[in-house]
Amino acid sequence: MLEVSNLGVRYGRHVALEGVSARVSKGEICVILGANGAGKSSFLGAVAGLVGTEAGTRIVMNGKDVTKLDAHLMVEEGIALVPEGRGIFGELTVAENLRLGSHARRAKPDAGKMLDFVYGLFPRLAERRRQLAQTMSGGEQQMVAIGRALMSKPDILMLDEPSLGLSPLLSKELFKSLATIAAEGFGILLVEQNARLSLKTADRGYLIETGRIVGEDTAPNLLKDPKVMSAYLGDA
Ligand code: ATP
């Protein structure tokens, strides 16, 4: 469904990503693991159309070349990003934040259906629909951010460090929700610090080091690879 090949990103003279290729299929959860500054956020930003890419980059979504499209057009192609820090509107209610997600042309006809899906996935959001987003807890705000992205009816949901700042218990619940979302047929591409938890839920993983992919395997294989364990899971 999403196929990225030879992706490059530069910030001035600094090469942040070079020759990065990755793919995500329908219903699949892929995680990108890497140290701070490896280029993970730049990768998601580039795929979302927020960060410019170098010549030679090719991003294909559902068979269509979408390489140079702006972010709002990427949403129309079915790519939604939940940014690090969530990016929700604190002064708006939960329901208003969710409604903002359904402005995409592709989303409008099914807005009611998607809202039911989001409220079914996160019943807390339904209970608190009139509450200002800024007064929600960290975990609830993450639900709002994911819900808003889902409202655009994406084929691929991308998440930048979704468990950041969440307790271990809430992180576990978050990953359960991601598994439910994938089981509905959405593809998920996420960047995570929490390597162990994300690999337990993911189907496949990519390892990224200083802007290049240095490994790719199924999540179970990565979890039992001692080199991966020591480099990304913080174990010896
Ligand atoms: P982290 O986990 O710390 O967020 P990351 O793997 O997501 O890191 P990126 O944020 O993609 O990494 O950054 C990759 C490299 O590009 C880093 O060296 C970073 O300093 C640099 N970089 C990112 N954004 C910019 C920018 N707007 N201008 C200049 N350099 C940038």
From TrEMBL:
One of its GO terms (molecular function) is branched-chain amino acid transmembrane transporter activity. InterPro entries: AAA+_ATPase, ABC_transporter-like_ATP-bd, ABC_transporter-like_CS, BCAA_Transport_ATP-bd_LivF, P-loop_NTPase. Keywords: Amino-acid transport, ATP-binding, Nucleotide-binding, Transport. PROSITE patterns: ABC_TRANSPORTER_1, ABC_TRANSPORTER_2. GO terms for biological process: L-amino acid transport. Belongs to the ABC transporter superfamily. This is Leucine/isoleucine/valine transporter subunit ATP-binding component of ABC superfamily. It comes from Mesorhizobium prunaredense.
